[in-house]
């Protein structure tokens, strides 16, 4: 079958924009051969078709004005006046996230949370691209109502999928819960009890005077489990604030002062599940806390897999321990290099399957055919 003429491919891409609500850039990428075609019309907003009545099950009335109902495309963040922000703290744009860290999705950890903890309600504070919230909304057995907190409206590619409706996709509250104008929303939201509260590598981006109220609010919202991580002192990264980088023991103590209980067995297993995707940050930093009565547990659901053993690594036992006695240094280095490529391939394949639009943008950013525009001055 021959390649369609240039004009036909333009019309095909335009039809996809109109019919599917995708961005012009994505339509060109998928149907027009990437840089061969550029559509100049404005990128549309994705209409999330949010069931506001259903949202009230997890979103209090005081937060109704912050419930996001339309979302920009990732392509919108590559236009002039948008792009890299947050390099000195605060929140990022999605383009910054994709450009610097990629999807950065901890697939085995997300599976462990979904199939092991099986929360019916989830609150994620600072959800980045929204991939973890989206995964839980899709895959928790029996379904879960998931609420994501992020100040800027998130991506239509994640939060406005036309193939899924709530609760098979997350809700977003586009709100800064530390803003005095959002006081009523923050009060009522954190007064609710969620089966699971999540926050991964967010606290180090907050000013230090916000850490105490953050701990208080996350603890208040925890109905069963809190799964939390924040950058340790001197941990490298973009937008980290030195005074807000604390050791995990400090966070454990702070949450215990709010009445939560440290769960060492669950913490250990979730840290193991964070490997190899997030071995650098979630591995050392992650903690699991429980509301009084929450069960500490060491089981790993069969749906999870995880750990280096999942990649066929010769030096791993089922517990992920290293076995080195019978291998030379050269053999170990060779095997580690092979494992590195296996990890990258599996992460790439999973991302492409779950979020193909984001994956395509990530690849374009890495290839240098697309860039996040500098913020307007």
TrEMBL record:
Pfam family membership, one = Methyltransf_23
Taxonomic superkingdom: Eukaryota
Query: What name does UniProt use for this protein?
Result: Methyltransferase domain-containing protein
Organism per entry: Aureococcus anophagefferens (Harmful bloom alga)
């Amino acid at each position: 079958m021959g390649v369609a003429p240039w004009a036909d491919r333009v019309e095909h891409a335009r039809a996809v924009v109109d019919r599917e609500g995708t961005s012009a850039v994505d339509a060109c990428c998928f149907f027009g051969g990437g840089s061969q075609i550029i559509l100049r019309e404005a990128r549309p907003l994705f209409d999330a078709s949010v069931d506001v009545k259903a949202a009230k099950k997890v979103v209090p009335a005081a937060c109704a004005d912050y419930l996001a109902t339309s979302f920009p495309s990732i392509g919108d963040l590559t236009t002039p006046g948008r792009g890299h922000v947050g390099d000195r703290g605060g929140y990022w744009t999605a383009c910054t996230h994709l450009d610097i860290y990629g999807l950065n999705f901890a697939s085995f950890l997300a599976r462990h949370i979904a199939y092991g903890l099986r929360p019916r309600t989830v609150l994620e504070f600072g959800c980045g691209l929204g991939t973890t919230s989206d995964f839980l909304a899709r895959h928790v057995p029996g379904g879960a109502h998931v609420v994501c907190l992020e100040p800027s409206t998130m991506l239509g590619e994640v939060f406005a999928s036309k193939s899924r409706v709530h609760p098979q996709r997350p809700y977003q509250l586009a709100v800064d819960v530390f803003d005095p104008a959002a006081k009523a929303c923050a009060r009522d939201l954190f007064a609710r009890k969620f089966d699971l509260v999540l926050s991964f590598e967010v606290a180090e981006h907050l000013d230090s005077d916000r850490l105490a109220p953050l701990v208080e609010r996350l603890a208040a919202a925890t109905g069963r489990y809190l799964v939390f991580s924040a950058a340790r002192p001197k941990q490298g990264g973009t937008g980290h604030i030195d005074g807000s980088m604390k050791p995990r023991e400090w966070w454990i103590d702070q949450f215990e002062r709010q009445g939560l209980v440290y769960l060492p067995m669950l913490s250990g297993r979730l840290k193991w599940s964070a490997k190899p995707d997030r071995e650098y940050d979630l591995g050392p930093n992650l903690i699991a806390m429980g509301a009084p009565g929450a069960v500490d547990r060491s089981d790993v659901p069969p749906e999870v897999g995880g750990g280096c053993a999942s990649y066929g690594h010769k030096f791993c036992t089922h517990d992920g321990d290293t076995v080195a006695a019978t291998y030379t240094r050269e053999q170990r280095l060779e095997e580690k290099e092979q494992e590195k490529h296996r990890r990258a391939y599996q992460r790439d394949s999973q991302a492409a399957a779950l979020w193909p639009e984001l994956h395509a943008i990530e690849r374009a950013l890495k290839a240098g055919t697309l860039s996040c525009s500098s913020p307007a001055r």
